[in-house]
Write a structure and sequence with these properties.
55% of the residues lie in helices and 12% in strands. By secondary structure, the protein is an alpha/beta fold. The longest helix is centred in the first third of the chain and has 35 residues, at 2-36. The protein is globular, with a radius of gyration of 22 Å. The structure holds NADP nicotinamide-adenine-dinucleotide phosphate (NAP). NADP nicotinamide-adenine-dinucleotide phosphate binds at residues 55-61, 79-81, 84, 106-108, 131-135, 158, 185, 187, 230, 232-233, 235-238. The site of NADP nicotinamide-adenine-dinucleotide phosphate has 29 residues, from helix 3.
């Protein structure tokens, strides 16, 4: 009996010590990431002259282009619409006094990469932000997605192929110089299945796994590769206009995100989003989360279809 009491005492003591140490480690790493930040890491003088941003004319991509220009990078803006590219590039040049270059390309196609490759030739690229991405117009059952055949191709080309191909074009020179940062914008919806946005959610899981695998391959060669997993941000894609604490503007999100680079391989990028990520993946049982996300999707879908009916 005494032996059993002793054993229980030691099991309890070791458990409490382990929990205390792991809580302390979490706290210290939280302070490092969310309060201290990465200092001067994201500077052109440290990484290389140019930053390349895909999907750079709106939302999160535009905010990356502006913030990186503010840090002294010359910016290559890549998006679909030339007029929007010209407008953003002019604004960046006059506000931040840096060089810019534009490349118009539709990431829905797969024949654009020779054009992008020649546009990037000879540039010393310090940062690549693989940001371009599209989602559903509304949550829908897979088989009922309007124009499903072309929707599948276009979502895979934009959300997945672009990340792999842009990395293929930019990474070799980074490896030669033993420095560079690649930020791959995935989504919190890649952290768990999101029914009714299944293809989007799965495409973002690909981006997350691709980034984390690649980080392990190229870390020792001096390259930082980060998987970025935002929850909602106020952009055209999310269709949310009003910023709140948990739904930041793209500018607020990107500022916070950039100070996590080099400190987290996989990051929600913004403290309230990190808390939401922890609650959804560590605290909620997966089955319950799946049911909850499905019911949210169903009610969003019903609201959208009702609005469409009313004209
Ligand atoms: N907003 C959110 O709540 C949220 C949450 C999680 C993850 N994300 C991810 O964050 C990334 C950026 O999203 P966002 O909300 O900032 O989107 P957004 O506001 O809709 O902006 C999309 C940008 O991508 C460009 N683009 C769209 N389709 C393109 C195509 N086929 N070829 C070339 N460029 C194209 C657009 O330029 P043009 O108009 O010129 O085509 C625009 O510059 C995406 O990967 C998204 O999945 C967003």
């Amino acid at each position: 009996m005494e032996l059993l009491t002793d054993a229980l005492y030691w099991i309890g003591a070791v458990t409490v010590a382990w929990l205390s140490v792991s809580t302390l480690c979490r706290l210290l790493s939280g302070i490092r990431v969310w309060i201290v930040g990465n200092g001067n890491l994201m500077r052109a003088t440290k990484l290389g002259k140019w930053a390349v941003v895909t999907g750079a004319t709106d939302g999160i991509g535009k905010a990356y282009a502006e913030e990186l220009a503010r840090q002294g990078f010359a910016i290559v803006l890549i998006s679909r619409t030339q007029e929007k590219l010209d407008e953003v590039s002019k604004a960046i040049e006059s506000k931040y006094n840096v060089e810019t270059k534009t490349i118009s390309a539709d990431f829905g196609s797969v024949d654009i990469y020779p054009k992008i490759e020649s546009g990037l030739a000879g540039l010393e690229i310090g940062v690549l932000v693989n940001n371009v991405g599209v989602s559903y117009s509304y949550p829908e059952f897979f088989l009922d997605i309007p124009g499903i055949d072309s929707f599948i191709n276009s979502m895979i080309n934009i959300n997945i192929t672009s990340v792999c191909q842009m990395t293929r074009l930019v990474l070799p020179r980074m490896v030669e110089r033993s420095k560079g940062v690649i930020l791959n914008v995935a989504s919190a919806s890649g952290m768990y299945p999101v029914p009714l946005l299944t293809l989007y959610s799965s495409s973002k899981t690909f981006v997350d796994f691709f980034s984390r695998g690649l980080e392990a391959e190229y870390k020792s060669k001096g390259i930082i590769i980060q998987s970025v997993l935002p929850f909602y941000v106020t952009t055209k894609l999310s269709k949310i206009r009003r910023a709140t604490l948990d739904i930041p503007s793209p500018e607020r999100y990107v500022k916070a995100q950039l100070s996590t680079v080099g400190l987290q391989t996989q990051s929600n990028g913004y403290f309230p989003h990190a808390v939401m990520g922890w609650v959804t993946t560590a605290l909620l049982p997966a089955k319950l989360l799946n049911k909850y996300v499905m019911s949210m999707g169903l009610s969003q879908r019903a609201r959208y279809l009702k609005k469409q009916k009313q004209g």
